[in-house]
Every structure is written in structure tokens, then in C-alpha cells.
Design a protein that fits this description.
Layout (H helix, E strand, L loop, with lengths): L6 E6 L6 H11 L4 E4 L2 E4 L2 E5 L8 H8 L4 H14 L3 E6 L2 H10 L5 E6 H4 L2 H14 L2 E3 L3 H8 L3 E9 L8 E8 L13 H13 L4 E12 L2 E11 L4 H20 L3 E12 L5
Length: 279
């Protein structure tokens, strides 16, 4: 598949120097809406194709995935490029050779313009980024947290929103990003105890007068997310259907906000009704 009309830009820098953090800025300054970074095709702030290479189990697999060697990784990206017909694409890579390989493997033209990390970041900023990568195993991906939850449940750390003015008379850009720790991180797998979910749920129950208490919580987690089942006792006289709906919405929202986990299902059942004075 060939895309001769696409103008290919590159953003190059060593691993851990802050490329992904600055990708949206570089793209914005060059009028680019499409970015290829670590196996993902990103349009503005939305992932439109691909699966992040950082989900791969080993460092070697991560590199192979990011280069689009396999048809399973390559085809969705090619299909999306064909569908959206971008005029420009920015490819991120650790070297000129890596970016050229990505372009060639996807059938894109040769790189016509390259920006190097030292052109947009100071040595001090790059050293800080390297330190965070080495000591904390954190990576930035230039999309909002919710865009990655399905792929990275259990690995997301912090959402960021970057707002920067580009000067008088120029339109500012807002770039949402997600800090995450990849599956292969030597710092270990990121997990959240079931007790954390129970404590969040029980705390929320104390803030809702219609819920007397939570009597049972069952949590099951998998690679794609977390499923939660709750049994509660509701207060006599409340609208049970509305109470359960409100509690379910609040619980999902708070759990996702506080843990960055992808809640794939959340069920609340009224097991009993509490009548004041019946103790």
C-alpha cells in the first residue's frame, strides 16, 4: 500500500528524553494532525488505530511492535491512513533510521522534514525526563487517559493537561497526555488491592443517606479491566431504582478517577431494606 501524497515529518530523540511529551507541540507548530508513536496512530487527541507497543511483554517485542513488522500491527494503521487521508504525519522515533523503517513498513514516503529533541528541549529538561524514566519507569503518551484505559487497565498513572500560549495573535494549544508504566517495566506490575475498591465504595455509601450500608463487594480483575458486584441495604422509603442508579454512577466515576482502572462492569443489587427503629 502506498501513500505518495502524504508528507512525512519526523521527531527524533533518544529514549526517555521527552519526545512524546512534546509531540503535540511539534505537530501543532507544523500544522500536523496525525502522529505515529509507539504503535499508535493518533489524530489530534484521539487514538484512531493501533495498540501501544508498551503493552508488549518484553523490550524486544516492544521495539518490533513500534516498527510495524507484523501485518497484524501494520494493517490497522494502513487502513486508518487510507480512510482519513492525512496531508501530513509526524512519526516519533529514537533515531533517523527507526523513523525511516516505520515509514517504509507502512508504505509511506520518505521523511521530508526532521525535528530533533534538542531543538525543542533544553539539556536540563532532557536529563529530568531521563531521570524519571530510569527511576520511576514512567512514559508519556500524547493522548488523554480515557483513550488508553482499555489497553492499559492497571498501568495508567497520571493524566496531564498542557495548555501553552504560542504568542500574541497565535492560537494556543491544549494537549492532553497520559503518564503510564509499560507492561515490561522492571519496577514490577502495577496492581490495586481489592480492599481499595471496597473502601472507596463504602466511603461513597456514607455520603448517600439512601444507602444504609454495603454488605458485600466482589471484585474481579483481568487484562481488559475490572468488574465489580455490590450488594447494599437501602433505607426504607427511598426510590430504590433511582438510588441504585445514582450509587452505581458515582461508584464508577470515583473508582475510575481515583485508580485509573477501566471498569468494564459494575452491578449494584438491593439485598434488603432498612427500617429505622427496627433494630
Amino acid at each position: 500500500m502506498s501513500f505518495e501524497k502524504v508528507k512525512v515529518y519526523a521527531f527524533v530523540g533518544p529514549s526517555g528524553t521527552g519526545k512524546s511529551y512534546r509531540a503535540q507541540m511539534v505537530a501543532s507548530e507544523k500544522g500536523i494532525h496525525f502522529i505515529i508513536d509507539d504503535g499508535l496512530l493518533i489524530k489530534d487527541n484521539e487514538i484512531i488505530a493501533g495498540e501501544s507497543a508498551k503493552k508488549a511483554p518484553t523490550k524486544i517485542e516492544t521495539v518490533k511492535h513500534a516498527l510495524f513488522y507484523e501485518d497484524a500491527e501494520k494493517k490497522p494503521i494502513e487502513k486508518a491512513i487510507k480512510k482519513y487521508k492525512p496531508a501530513k504525519i509526524l512519526i516519533l522515533g529514537t533515531s533517523d533510521g527507526m523513523v525511516q523503517k516505520i515509514a517504509a513498513n507502512l508504505g509511506l514516503p520518505e521523511v521530508s522534514d526532521t525535528t530533533y529533541i534538542n531543538q525543542v528541549a533544553t539539556e536540563e529538561e532532557m536529563q529530568t525526563a531521563r531521570h524519571i524514566r530510569v527511576t520511576e519507569g514512567k512514559h508519556v503518551i500524547p493522548v488523554p487517559t480515557f483513550e488508553l484505559k482499555k489497553d492499559f487497565s492497571g498501568y495508567l498513572l497520571d493524566p496531564l493537561q498542557i495548555f501553552k500560549s504560542k504568542g500574541i495573535g497565535q492560537k494556543p494549544y491544549i494537549s492532553e497526555k497520559t503518564i503510564m508504566r509499560p507492561t515490561f517495566s522492571y519496577l514490577g506490575k502495577f496492581t490495586i488491592s481489592d480492599t481499595v475498591f471496597r473502601q472507596i465504595i463504602e466511603f461513597l455509601a456514607t455520603k448517600m443517606p439512601e444507602i444504609y450500608k454495603v454488605v458485600r463487594t466482589r471484585v474481579s480483575s483481568s487484562e481488559i479491566g475490572t468488574s465489580i458486584y455490590m450488594e447494599v441495604v437501602v433505607m426504607y422509603g427511598c426510590n430504590i431504582q433511582e438510588t441504585l442508579k445514582e450509587f452505581k454512577e458515582k461508584a464508577r466515576r470515583e473508582i475510575e478517577n481515583l485508580t485509573a482502572m477501566n471498569v468494564i462492569s459494575l452491578d449494584v443489587v438491593a439485598k434488603n431494606i432498612y427500617v429505622p427503629g427496627s433494630d
